[in-house]
Write a structure and sequence with these properties.
61% helix, mainly alpha, 186 residues, Hypothetical Protein Ta1238, Chain: A
Amino acid sequence: MKIYTRSGDTGQASLYNGDRLYKDDAVFQALGDVDELNSALGVAASFLTNKTLLEQLEIIQSRLIDVGSAVATPLPTSPENKLQRTHFPGVVHAQQLEGWIDAMDEHLPPLKNFILPSGGRGSSALHHARSVCRRAERSVVVLSRRQTISLEVNTYLNRLSDFLFTAARFTAHSDGVPEVIYKKSS
């Protein structure tokens, strides 16, 4: 099988349910943002050494493929068998993220100030991934407001940005790199 199909050369692409849409459709915007987030996590992982965090990121990257499948299968136009195959239990996966957040939080000093994205390469890459995650979340909100995807996708991405913020802080702390405190202009 070749990687190229030429089916998108006219500016349209197919969703999992077979619908063909223009590539500037909100569905493809969301899919692209989720894909970019997955790539940002891959970059972040290349700077990390904590085995547990690396294992968690690998799980998250797989869940993001699941998120993409759910996004690519709109609720109102997809047959039941495809909806069942791509159902994303976001609340369950968000609870897993919460457990990981709580475990990292136990090792962190309380946050008393706003911090700038900083803390070394790994921490900064995780902060960047968090920003990309927020954009992906905004993209899927458009779809959930249209009721074409489950709100559980929003729940997961919202919690994922919390996880990435905490993971960035945890990485800076573990690496012994100070976080840079925001200073208000005078």
